[in-house]
Amino acid sequence: PRRGAVVLAAGSARAALVVDEVLSEQEALVRALGPRVRRARHVSAAAVLPDGRLSLLLNPLSLVRAAGGRPSASLFPTPAAQRTRRRVVLADDSPTTRALEQNILEGAGYEVVACADGAEAWERLQALGADALVLDVEMPRMDGFSLTEAVRASPRFSRLPVVLVTARGKPEDRARGLQVGASAYLVKSAFDPTSLLETLRRLL
């Protein structure tokens, strides 16, 4: 299929970013990322599109530096080739964080089922199944700890990898997460897309 390219400039440096398709050029209301996700690689802000959807904005300077003048560069790490796409159920009540993590996972080749809270994630998991769960802890209706306990108590999903990605970084919170059965516990204040992808790769 025919693809397009977007030329990025940062000072005197230039880089061409290959894209599947150039959809449009439009103005948008830009919002700064919160401190929990500010370290996300190559992402500088979020924008609310005219139709109400949330979109992440890439940082041109970061992308140009990552390309480093090489003819071809992989800006986002991807997992080894897989025969079928792995499905990840993702739950976070923050639209910005959810969109960020969904983009990271989809960019790495995963099929993502995004949910706004733990109860929705539990419903979607039972209906669709999944290869892994990526969960926030503090969510309405059903929090990440409770959902992890439900997963571990289920004969069908008891061995499913569960990654908690949360702002709660105290030792007692981490201990609680591991106690209820989380496979990994990542703190948002030190969030790095590479750590999330490497954690999933290790667990799968």
From TrEMBL:
This chain belongs to the protein called histidine kinase
**Per the UniProt entry, what are the Gene Ontology biological process annotations, in alphabetical order?**
chemotaxis; phosphorelay signal transduction system
UniProt keyword rRNA-binding present: no
Question: Where 4-aspartylphosphate occurs along the chain?
Answer: D136
E.C. designation(s)? 2.7.13.3
Give the first-level EC class, as a single word: transferase
The record, for InterPro entries, names: Bact_Chemotaxis_CheA, CheW-like_dom_sf, CheW-lke_dom, CheY-like_superfamily, Sig_transdc_resp-reg_receiver
Known catalytic reactions: ATP + protein L-histidine = ADP + protein N-phospho-L-histidine
Quote the SMART domains the UniProt record gives: REC
| MF-aspect GO terms | protein histidine kinase activity
